[in-house]
Amino acid sequence: MPRRHRQRARLALLLGSAALAAHAGTPVRYEIDPVHTRVVFDIDHAGFSRAIGTLSGSQGSLQFDADDWSTAKLDVVVPMQRLDMGDSGWSAAVFAPRFLDVKRYPEARFVSSRVERTSDDTGSVCGDLTLHGVTRPLCMRLKLNRIARYPLPPFRHTAGFSATASLRRSDFGMDSWLSLVGDTVELRIEAELVRRNGGDAGKAPDDPPAPDPQTTP
User: Fold this and answer.
1) CB-neighbour burial class of residue 83 (10 A; exposed 0-12, middle 13-18, buried 19+)
2) Is 185 a residue whose pLDDT tops 50?
3) What's the CA gap between 43 and 128, in Å, rounded?
4) HEC assignment per residue over the chain
5) Does the pLDDT of residue 11 top 80, yes or no?
6) Fewer CB within 10 Å, N or C, the chain?
7) How do 38-45 and 49-55 pair as beta strands?
């Protein structure tokens, strides 16, 4: 590697370390990237299989300090009409009044009340889930996958999380066909969130400079 490229790489590393140190202990505001965020759920289908569906288009915000998870605040809205069962007829059946009734209840919302860290990269987030017009407490197991600048333009500062949880649909007023469709719903969430500084939708002012493409694999 040419000397000038090595010097640029060292400078980028030093500036990045300085920026991270400056932000230590300061909550950062993130907004959900709906393109790279999915909710996946599965539920028993008459004992024959686990029916799988996905939800896209989530919106919301996260206040997060990587050094103190207890200060985190999460508020997420999920558009229920974006649910996909892999078949239009099956999706329509789930949208119907006997199940999600999406015309009356077009959104689900989760608002955190407590976040706890259990290891370097795992924890739990508890709060209130509003679904089908009913609000109930819900806790999710949480894993912090990575906080870093995305390696391609516009090099946005990104946080990635995975989460899992279980809920009973009957707790949210959906108790139709319990002999055919299971009651327990397993949830898996894969989420990417982008840092926002004063409404900046791209590179935050204090982000370290982007690496030289010639020195990046």
Assistant:
1) buried
2) yes
3) 21
4) CCHHHHHHHHHHHHHHHHHHHHHCCCCEEEEECHHHCEEEEEEEECCCEEEEEEECCCEEEEEECCCCHHHCEEEEEEEHHHCECCCHHHHHHHHCCCCCCCCCCCEEEEEEEEEEECCCCEEEEEEEEEECCEEEEEEEEEEEEEEEECCCCCCCEEEEEEEEEEEEHHHHCCCCCCCCEEEEEEEEEEEEEEECECCECCCCCCCCCCCCHHHCC
5) no
6) C
7) antiparallel
| pLDDT, average across residues 179-200 | 88
Which whole number is the average pLDDT over 115-141? 98
Please state the φ and ψ torsions of residue 35, each to the nearest 5 degrees.
-70, -35
- pTM of the entire predicted model: 0.80
Residue 209: the pLDDT is 42
Residue 87: give the domain boundaries: 26-199
- Band (pLDDT 50/70/90 cuts) for residue 98 is very high
Work out how many domains the chain is built from and give that number: 1
CATH of the domain at 144: 2.40.128.110
**What pLDDT score was predicted for residue 36?**
97
